[in-house]
Protein: Rhodanese
Amino acid sequence: MSHVSSTGVASPLEASAFFEAQLKFRTDPADLAADLLAGEAAEGGSIVVIDTRSPAHYTEAHIPGAISFPHSIMSPATTQGLSRDKVYVCYCDGIGCNGSTQGAYKLAALGFRVKELIGGLHWWRQDGFAVATGSEAGVLLEGGIACAC
Structure:
């Protein structure tokens, strides 16, 4: 018997619902970069990119346009100034870090619309996208590797 199918296989309807849900909760570096290049994170745009790591890690390297908002300080008081009309894309170091998950959970629990960046800063860099350094958000000026999807 196949190892792949030994634990069962979802019906097409179940699989469709599952994968649709994943797309509602996560985004990838190429899609985020496309939105950044299109100005979706600029003033008046529809998304806000949040670096959920410490300010020191943000200063070392961050996604251009991201704001530093460590998940450890997210609360009703610290989120008062956030717009409820935006979609917040949270990221951290990468797959071995759960800071983006914690940040997305906290924001969602407070009533904000959120997505998590798959692979965090690690996959962002792996896909060839530039990073900004220092305390300023910066702006993404060009794309990285074109998605082969």
In short: The first helix runs from residue 12 to 25.
